[in-house]
Amino acid sequence: MEFERERKKLVNNLVSFGVLRTKRIIEAFLKIPRHLFVTKDQLPYAYVDVALPTLKNSTISQPSTVAIMTEALQPKEGDKILEVGTGSGWQAAILSYCVGENGRVITIEIDKDLVEFARKNLKKVGIKNVKVIHGDGGLGYEKEAPYDGCIITAACPRIPPPIIKQTKVNGRIVAPIGTAWEQRVILAVKEKYGKLKKIDLGAFVFVPMRGSYGFSGAGRI
Ligand code: SAH
Predict the structure, then answer these.
(1) Distance in angstroms (rounded) separating the CA atoms of residues 2 and 42
(2) Which ligand 1 atom is nearest residue 60's CA?
(3) Percentages helix, strand, coil for the chain, rounded to the nearest 5?
(4) Given ligand 1 and candidates 56, 84, 97, which is best to mutate, with the most ligand atoms within 8 Å of its CB?
(5) In this model, does residue 221 exceed pLDDT 90?
(6) Can you list the positions of beta strands (E) in the chain?
(7) Is the pLDDT at 1 greater than 80, yes or no?
(8) Which neighbouring-strand residues pair with 172?
(9) What value does the mean pLDDT of the chain take?
């Protein structure tokens, strides 16, 4: 299969660095073809461990970043996961494999062109358990709540309260929190009464979140 050797090499590296650890997540990285989620001009770099530009201000996240965030989220078979910031749809596709046929991924993208781009990419791979919603992900997606886990793939000043509310007790939230220029990826486990137990996973740089809970949104503070 096309690019299979490059993909295996990338995954082997992520495993040997200790970034990828969980069997099902490793399988997801081996099964989901990242080159089907990049634009044509970026094809030669599809299996290099870097973020790549896609359309407009969006990027497809760096493989090691997706690995770290997915390992932190620990999606299980049958889970319902919410993603904010669909972009190319690649992270959603990785989650789709992890939750399996009985699980679902709801992913929200604010830009209409990217919604179309992601839907097209997911269709190419034959993925059926991902629903791409056009909207402001900071508000979550009440209609399908509660979620077993939530992942935010755009930088935000704080975890948007609607996301915390829509996550189940003992559910995990993984999100890049900070300024528009630099963020720390935080793993937050929701305890009883909505209290969060947080772990800092290090410094990263993401595309800033727009909308109500973005850096100039009404709900930023
Ligand atoms: N997860 C993606 C990468 C996302 S880049 C992947 O696997 O390729 C961040 C994305 O968040 C961009 O596409 C941007 O348009 C989107 N975004 C920014 N603010 C948003 C918001 N409030 N709601 C939903 N999506 C948002």
Answers:
(1) 15
(2) 8
(3) 35, 25, 35
(4) 84
(5) no
(6) 52-53, 59-60, 80-84, 104-109, 130-134, 147-152, 167-178, 183-190, 196-204
(7) no
(8) 149, 189
(9) 96
**DSSP class of 16:** H
- Look at ligand 1, atom 2, and give the residue with the nearest C-alpha: 87
- Going by C-beta distance under 8 Å and a sequence separation of 6 or more, which residues neighbour residue 70? 25, 28, 91, 94, 95, 98, 151
Q: Which CA distances in Å does 53 have to 60, 85, 148?
A: 6, 14, 30
The DSSP annotation for 116-146 comes to HHHHHHHHHHT--SEEEEES-GGG--GGG--
Helices 4-16 and 63-73 cross at an angle (nearest 10°) of 60
The answer to whether the CB of 106 falls within 8 A of the CB of 134 is no
Catalytic residues: 61
Query: Cα separation of 210 and 134, whole Å?
Result: 13
List domains and CATH numbers for the chain: 2-220 (3.40.50.150)
User: In this predicted model, what pLDDT tens digit does every residue of 82-136 receive, in sequence order?
Assistant: 999 999 999 999 999 999 999 999 999 999 999 999 999 999 999 999 999 999 9
